[in-house]
Design a protein that fits this description.
There is one protein chain. 41% of the residues lie in helices and 19% in strands. With 362 residues, it is of the alpha/beta class. Helix 3 runs antiparallel to helix 4 and helix 4 packs antiparallel against helix 5. Bound molecules: 5-S-methyl-1-O-phosphono-5-thio-D-ribulose (MRU).
Length: 362
């Protein structure tokens, strides 16, 4: 997508060929700053400290991280160590395991001298594939928005609600949940997006809003608790969210709070879709509530908030009484029965084992 008029991805090889560059997402929306990853530990830190985040981008960064590791040491032991180090960075998004297993399968049969180059070529390919998958999701999801626009009639805006950031910042480019939104906006549909702020880290308020603003998509940031009310008053036509892991039976794991939106959507007859690129599908499990590991993050993300003061400096303040404990489960699971459909790169699937098997028979 464009940043200050320049086509920009979230991750790219540095011009000198010696490192990888990323957008440091911890600095958005107040500053657009890039960071350089030169080693395995830089890549692992970028994922665990959430300089990069979002399931597809975590996967892409991990492949680049494997290249950085193998460039320094391409032995069998180093390959296993890098795989383990990167896999331990964040537990929930299955794209991470998918990406790491893919690199290992590609490079392990090769002599060590050829491994780093092979990992680098794979990193380039995974990034390009991610963009292609997201564009295909945009194409598959666009008719859903066109149908709402046609039903509502000329001049009536189509209200989409989204949670967290499943936009281009969460991927290499384009985004998953945002792909149909950008496609519809670019096609001239009167799209408006309700952006859940997404406490505790505020990925909606900080990242999705920033993206939509940059691309000129009309949007309104709302407190996480406002969605149900808006649905009751007919102000949400469709919910589209991303996913960190979707099971073979169609259970959708995504940022904490997604489940509550699905419940409210069901109660109000609002269609609820998840945008699911195939690397986010975990074919090894069916019951998302019981089988998906949910990341527990620092309580400090709940007890403190950061923001920009009038003088431009960033300040972090406490928002709960000192001494009150806080808990921070970072993801939840929306059971398939609450999901209207899964927007994949191969089309829209029913959220069920049968629906997914129909699109992914292999
Ligand atoms: O903790 P984050 O910011 O990595 O969580 C991101 C999400 O939950 C996204 O919705 C999900 O990764 C899908 S991104 C296309």
């Amino acid at each position: 997508m464009n940043v200050l008029g320049r086509p920009t991805r979230t991750i790219w090889p540095s011009p000198d060929g010696a490192a990888v560059e990323i957008i440091d997402q911890t600095r958005l929306p107040h500053a657009f700053v890039t960071a350089r990853l030169s080693s395995l530990s830089d890549a692992a830190h970028a994922i665990s400290a959430m300089l990069v985040r979002g399931a597809p981008l975590i996967g892409a960064t991990a492949v680049w991280g494997m290249w950085l590791a193998l460039r320094a040491d391409a032995s069998d032991a180093a390959l296993a160590g890098a795989h383990a180090t990167l896999l331990a960075t964040r537990p929930t998004a299955v794209n991470l395991r998918w990406a790491l297993d893919r690199v290992r399968a590609r490079v392990a049969p090769l002599p060590p001298a050829r491994r780093a180059d092979a990992a680098r070529a794979l990193a380039v390919a995974v990034c390009d594939e991610d963009v292609a998958l997201n564009r295909a999701i945009g194409k598959a999801g666009l008719p859903l928005l066109q149908a709402i626009a046609a039903r509502r009639g000329a001049g009536q805006r189509v209200n989409v609600l989204t949670h967290c950031n499943a936009g281009w910042l969460a991927t290499v480019d384009v985004g998953t949940a945002t792909a149909p939104i950008y496609a519809a906006h670019d096609a001239g549909l009167p799209i408006h997006v309700w952006v859940d702020e997404t406490r505790p880290r505020n990925q909606g308020a900080s990242l999705t809003a920033w993206e939509l603003l940059n691309h000129g998509v009309p949007h309104t940031v709302i407190a996480d608790n406002a969605g149900g009310h808006l649905m009751q008053h007919g102000q949400v036509d469709i919910v589209i969210v991303g996913t960190d892991r979707t099971t073979a039976a169609g259970d959708v794991c995504n940022k904490i709070g997604t489940y509550l939106k699905a419940l409210a959507a069901r109660d109000n007859g609002v269609p609820f879709y998840a945008a699911v690129p195939s690397p986010s599908l975990d074919w090894t499990i069916r019951d998302g509530v019981r089988e998906i590991p949910i990341e527990e993050r620092s309580a400090r993300e709940v007890t403190h908030l950061s923001g920009r003061r009038a003088d431009g400096t960033i300040e972090t303040v406490g928002v709960v009484p000192e001494g009150s404990p806080a808990a921070n489960p970072a993801f939840d699971v929306t059971p398939a029965r609450l999901v209207t459909g899964l927007i994949t790169e191969r089309g829209v699937a029913e959220a069920s084992a049968t629906g997914l098997r129909r699109l992914f028979p292999e």
